[in-house]
Amino acid sequence: MLNIFFYCTWICIVTSISFYIGSALSLDRVVHPSSSQEEIHIESKTTDSINVPLFQNGDVAGYLVTNFIYNIDVSDSTKLSLPPDIFILDEAFHALFSQKIEPNHLEKYQIAGLKDKIKERVNQRLGGPYIKDILIKDFNYIPKREVPQ
Hints:
Tetrahydropterin Synthase, Chain A
């Protein structure tokens, strides 16, 4: 009879200690997240539209109108003295203006390559991997005859 009492007491003590240690470790993970789980707050920003003239036979055939969205970490955006918008638009204009684009076949244009090139060049100019991703919001061609004078 006395053995059963000691066994029951022993089981209660071990169970209580195990429950206490398990809940304390679980609570410690919730209160103090590990450094590998740092929270990154990414925000998306939209650039202004740019109009890039497209030439055919030495004349302006129309304009390529593009608009971009870029993702940047909030903590990184506070480190920059200038907004990345101006660099993104500058690099996009240079990339689009320097390439031969067929206005009637925009589906053949390699947009993924354009996005990667802009992201790489902007991060080089900013001095670090600030821009996480670049998305294209608009990519349209407007013929010269449809442009209001």
